[in-house]
Amino acid sequence: MLIGELAERAGTSARTLRYYEEQGLVRPRRDAHGYRQYDDAELKVVHEIRSLLAVGFGLDDIKPFVACLRATGSGHVCPDSVAVLRRKLAEVDGYLAELTDVRRQLHHQLTQALEHRENPCL
Questions:
Q1: Whether 36 contacts 46, CB under 8 Å
Q2: Residue 98: is it exposed, middle or buried by C-beta count within 10 angstroms (0-12/13-18/19+)?
Q3: What's the CATH number of domain 3-115, 1.10.10.10, 1.25.40.340, 1.20.1260.10, 1.10.1660.10?
Q4: Using CA atoms, how far apart are residues 69 and 85, in angstroms rounded to an integer?
Q5: Relative orientation angle of helices 59-72 and 79-115, to the nearest 10 degrees
Q6: Model pLDDT for residues 88-99, shown as the tens digit of each residue
Q7: 6-33 b/e with 16+ CB inside 10 Å = b?
Q8: Cβ distance 70 to 62 under 8 Å?
Q9: How many CB atoms lie within 10 A of CB 81?
Q10: CA 55, CA 95: separation in Å to the nearest integer?
Q11: pLDDT by residue (tens digit) across 23-69?
C-alpha cells in the first residue's frame, strides 16, 4: 500500500508516517519509481506506535517495542520493552503520589476554610 492508504488505515497523516520513518520506527520499501510501499506488518507497527503514544510514551521509549514487535510479533515481551514498561510504571506511580499529596493539601485547606469562615457562602 502507498503512504496515503497506510495513513488512512492507521488513522494518521502521511506527514506523521514520514516522521516515524525519519525516527527509524517505520520501514517502507521503495518501488521502481521511488514511492514508499508498506505492507500490513507496517500497519501493525503504526498501530503499536499510536497506542503507546496515547498512554504517554515518547518516541525514544517506543523504539524497543517496535524492535520487539518486528522480532517476535508482540511488542511487549522483550527485556528492553519490559524495562521501559517498568520505568514508565514507576514514573506514573510517582505522579500519583504527588497528586495524592496535592489532593490531601487541598482537602485540608478546604476543611479549614469551611470551619473558619465568618460569612457563610452559598
A1: no
A2: exposed
A3: 1.10.1660.10
A4: 15
A5: 140
A6: 999 999 999 999
A7: bbeebebeeebbeebbeeebbebeeeee
A8: no
A9: 23
A10: 14
A11: 999 999 999 999 999 999 999 999 999 999 999 999 999 999 999 99
Tally Cβ neighbours within 10 Å of residue 50: 15
Q: Which three cell numbers stand for residue 11?
A: 488513522
Q: What is the 3-state secondary structure (H, E, C) of the chain?
A: CCHHHHHHHHCCCHHHHHHHHHCCCCCCEECCCCCEECCHHHHHHHHHHHHHHHCCCCHHHHHHHHHHHHHHCCCCCCHHHHHHHHHHHHHHHHHHHHHHHHHHHHHHHHHHHHHCCCCCCC
What does the domain layout of the chain look like in residue ranges? 3-115
